Amino acid sequence: QNGGDACPHHQHGGSRACCPASSPPPRPRHLASSILPNREMARRFRSDPAFRLNVLGNVVRGGPYELFLSLVAALASPDDEDDERWRDPGMADGIIASADPARLASMLGGYGMDGHTLAHWCAKRGDEPRFLSFLVGRSYEGARLLIDLHLPSRDAVGMYPLHWAVTEGAIPLVSMLLTHLDERPSSAGGGRAPSSSASGLSPLAGDGDAAGPPDGVAAGSAGIDATDSSGCTPLLIAAQYGHPDLAAFLIRRGADPAAVDSSRDTALHWAAYKGTVEVCGMLLHMRGAEGHLDGTDAFGQTPLHLASLRGNADAVSFLMEEACGVGGKGLGAPAGGRVGSKSPGPGRPGAYAARLLGMRDKEGKTPKDLAIKKKKAGCELILDRYEETYLSPRRTLASRVGRTCRDLVSPRAWRSWMGATGSDMPVSSGPTFPFYWMVSNILLAGLFYWSELLGMGGPRTYADDSLLLDRMGLHVFFAVCWAATWATLYLTYVTNPGVLEVSDGTPRPSSCGLPCGGGGGYPRDRIGAEMDSITRELRRQYDEVIDSYSRDFPSPEKRVQLNHTCRIVRPPRSKYCRVARRCILMFDHHCPFVATTIGLYNYIYFY
Question: What is the structure's pLDDT at 4?
Fold first, then answer.
């Protein structure tokens, strides 16, 4: 696969001074003097474009906004060397406001020595949006474009500032750039430039290295679907970096969800390759599973192939659940209303999942073959379980006994049963051994007590002093506690913990072979009906929030927490259980000793 494991550019974060809480922070003085200590440096800063953009870029990368303003004020000051008012931070705003916009823009545009524009570095500062806001406000005057903020970098990557903002997951900056694309004028001054194309660079955009896009990058390709040198659009970058909210925002703002890179990988391919289940869930919800889960890239590989070769067990489980929801219900099939699932259609249930499991890449390998080749034991276990259900012929009793015997002597199977998942085992494979160990111990404790202390079923007589019949109160206490243990274990096990899911009552086997948290495995009682109603409302709110992304993105204070895997607005203290693979209301933890997830409704029985 092509690159993308990490951004080729450095990560940059702002720094803040640590001040006593009892006193306000001191007002910065002569910030620019630390960068431009004398008139000779100030003169070079104004006259040398490469040096100027290098200094400004370094300040934007990790410096405070006030220092940036002081340096811009140095550019906006008259050429009179005796005028050094710009060294006073309090004068910066006034100097910039009175400067000629075209002259100031000519000094802020163009490429630096590193091949990046100032807009690139501003787009990386998700912690300080004022940098980008400053450039946007001075990029055009009326109907005249002064600075083109949408130029690709002149390095091997060729990313636009929009790509850089996406790598940081900075939705406010992405929204700012998209709005600027819609509102900016064309370079010729003839009205607004279309958002899907880049305007040519204004003659005033930079007085140095300010020519057009680099070689190999087509001019006029800026926009929400702008591509870098590897063909990645901002949506593909969002999938690579695991930003589901940002990916949903881009799609609602008009990004092409079917865009592919130079290797023909879609956003779903990248999300599966990176193992970001929430991005997979959001994409399948917005596009559907059928026709996308089986999409192949230039290597003939589906998203399931990529998740398998990278060992992303959670992504493999999720993709197979979605595949089982196409054309009918089956092992692991999601209940009605599951994210990305379709209503059961004609054809044999599980046929789509069987076809997905059997698809081969250009080297003739299935997803399971890739998992075996890359030694990803967790993915191999999951795919083997699904292949056994959908691809293998009906097994005889002898073959089932043989398979059980092989599992009993398999270290890999015991690791899964014991919950020793490690880095290559599926987190969603709930350990079954602790549950059976606990049940066996409770049962044996009772049998030992009744047989050894009360002599039931043994040769002892009631006259035997060792029966402790004079301690009848102790026997009654043990009997009550033993019965209460079984009762609370049973109630904890069968009570719906608060699974946020629209259930059609179809039982769904869980990852551990027990009904431990599968929404369909619980009875359709009062709790189930209440969860059904709550989930429908949360999904309605989810759709409203996603639709609102087409207009604007809320501020962090007003931002609603979404769970894209379950396609709901996440209630307070609710969480997605990675073992049960469902969202649980008032989630506490998943307990392997009782083989279920502890939530709102079975919490009282557990404790």
Answer: 44
By the 10 Å C-beta count (0-12 exposed, 13-18 middle, 19+ buried), 66 is classed as middle
Start-to-end CA distance of the chain, whole Å, equals 49
* Residue 171, both tokens: 């939705």
CB 443 within 8 A of CB 482: no
Scored b (16 or more CB within 10 A) or e, 382-415 reads bbebbbebbbeeeeeeeeeeeeeeeeeeeeeeeb
Q: Which run of H or E residues covers position 293?
A: none
* Residue 26, phi-psi category: left (phi > 0), alpha (psi -120 to 50), beta (remainder): beta
Q: 129 phi and psi, to 5 degrees? A: -70, -10
DSSP H/E element including 568: strand 568-569
Angle at CA 571, nearest 5°, toward 566 and 575?
Answer: 55
pLDDT the model gives residue 161: 94
| pLDDT given at position 403 | 65
Low-confidence residues of the chain: pLDDT under 50? 1-30, 188-192, 194-220, 328-347, 421-428, 505-520
Is the separation of the CB atoms in 606 and 575 below 8 Å? no
Among 493, 473, 484, 514, smallest CA distance to 601 is for: 493
- For residues 167 and 164, what is the distance between their CA atoms, to the nearest angstrom? 5
Please report the pLDDT score of residue 551 as a whole number.
Answer: 66
Q: Count Cβ atoms below 10 Å from residue 39 Cβ, excluding itself.
A: 11
pLDDT of the residue at 152: 93
According to DSSP, residue 333 is labeled P
Using CB atoms within 10 Å of the CB of residue 315, give its burial: 0 to 12 exposed, 13 to 18 middle, 19+ buried. Answer: buried
Report the run of H or E that residue 144 belongs to, with start and end.
strand 144-145
Residue 82: what pLDDT? 55
Residue showing tokens 């379950």:
566
Cβ(230)–Cβ(253) under 8 Å? no
Distance separating alpha carbons of residues 437 and 418, to the nearest angstrom: 10
Q: Which residues contact 118 (CB under 8 A, 6 or more apart)?
A: 53, 56, 57, 60, 108, 109, 112, 135
Stated pTM of the model = 0.73
Token reading at 524? 């359709």
Helix (H, G, I), strand (E, B) or coil at 137: helix
pLDDT at 302: 94
Residue 523 is predicted with a pLDDT of 65
Strands 596-598 and 589-591: antiparallel
